[in-house]
Amino acid sequence: MCIAKLDKKGDVATMSDSVFLKRTIVKETLWSKHLQEERKLRIYLPPGYNEVLSYPVVYCQDGEEFFNFGRIATLAGRLIIEEDVEPFIIVGVEVDVTVRTQEYAPFGSRFKQYLSCFSEEIIPFIEQKYPVRRTPDERILAGDSLGGSVSLHLALAYPAIFTRILSLSGAFYPESRDMLAKEEDLSWLNINMVVGLQETDYKTDTGIYDFVQMNRETKTLLESRGATVSYREKDGHHLWGFWQKELPESLLYFLNA
User: Fold this and answer.
1) pLDDT of residue 5
2) I need a surface site. Which of 60, 65, 172, 210 has the fewest CB within 10 A?
3) Class of 16-255 in CATH
4) Domain extents for the chain?
5) Which runs of E-coded beta strand occur in the chain?
6) Hey, how many other C-beta atoms are within 10 angstroms of the C-beta on 160?
7) Which InterPro entries does the UniProt entry name for this protein (predicted)?
8) What is the pLDDT of residues 33-76, one digit of tens each?
9) Contact 152, 192 (CB under 8 A)
10) pLDDT above 60 (res 131)
11) SS3 breakdown of the chain: % helix, strand, coil, rounded to 5?
12) What is the average pLDDT across 80-101?
């Protein structure tokens, strides 16, 4: 397959997918004082990346899964080339699945430390090394399941840094909804939510949950406090096969604005 693009003179130039979708994936490791361990990052640099420019940035929880199963790097290349989306950088923050719930869930033993690590260590690390934009409206936090939940909690804890959340079947457990209920004004928050209609009895490591009802209740809580909520329900299960299909629409919600 070939893609046609206009060159600087307005003439049509045709090149192969492999050229247009060429990207760079950089791996980084930082030491977290808050977590007392190393944390690995995957950085997607878009086609035509230039350090002189500045880029919007998407920060992903479950970074390895977003790249391997969500195919976010490939999807990003297609959005940039085929949908004419402004080039953007992606930062995937990897997690040890054995302690994922402890870091991502509000009742987890490492939850507060993870929030501090993300906001006070990872963000400065990236902003020092890469030409990402540094305003809340140019940062997107993305997460699936508990990753969607912890992304929202990061925004609640650091509203001066994060205001835009992309949630794929967010695991908004009762503790998260209780914390949301205590908020009075979320008019600064913009969240895109999607959930699969077949996620009504999904088994997690902490119990069986109805993700559809969970997300509906969270949507209501958010809207009642003034948040901007883009919400959709689609046929789908609590799997990357579903989230991968929905990811482009969710990214376009923020990046095509």
Assistant:
1) 40
2) 210
3) alpha beta
4) 16-255
5) 2-6, 12-16, 24-32, 37-45, 57-60, 89-93, 139-144, 164-168, 190-196, 202-204, 207-209, 228-234
6) 8
7) AB_hydrolase_fold, Esterase-like, Mycobacterial_A85_antigen
8) 999 999 999 999 999 999 999 999 999 999 999 999 999 999 99
9) no
10) yes
11) 40, 25, 35
12) 96
| Residue matched to tokens 């949950």 | 209
**59 neighbors 142 (Cβ within 8 angstroms):** yes
The answer to whether residues 213 and 233 touch, using CB atoms and an 8 Å cutoff, is: no
> Rg of the chain over CA atoms, in angstroms?
18
- Burial grade of 230 (CB within 10 A; 0-12, 13-18, 19 or more): middle
Q: Is the pLDDT of residue 162 over 60?
A: yes
* Whether pLDDT at 19 is above 60: no
Give the strand pairing for 190-196 and 228-234. Answer: parallel
Residue (of 76, 94, 82) closest to 23 by Cα position: 76
Per-residue DSSP letter, 122: I
CA distance 162 to 165: 8
Cβ atoms of residues 38 and 25 within 8 Å: no
Which pLDDT belongs to residue 18?
54
For residue 24, count CB atoms less than 10 angstroms from its CB and return exposed for 0-12, middle for 13-18, buried for 19 or more.
Answer: exposed
Rounded (5°) CA angle 196-146-205: 95
How buried is residue 90: exposed, middle or buried, by Cβ count under 10 Å (0-12/13-18/19+)?
buried
Q: Do residues 218 and 180 touch, judged by C-beta distance below 8 A? A: yes
- Which is it for strands 139-144 and 57-60: parallel, antiparallel or unpaired? parallel
Residues sharing a CB contact under 8 Å with residue 81, sequence separation 6 or more, in sequence order: 3, 5, 20, 21, 47
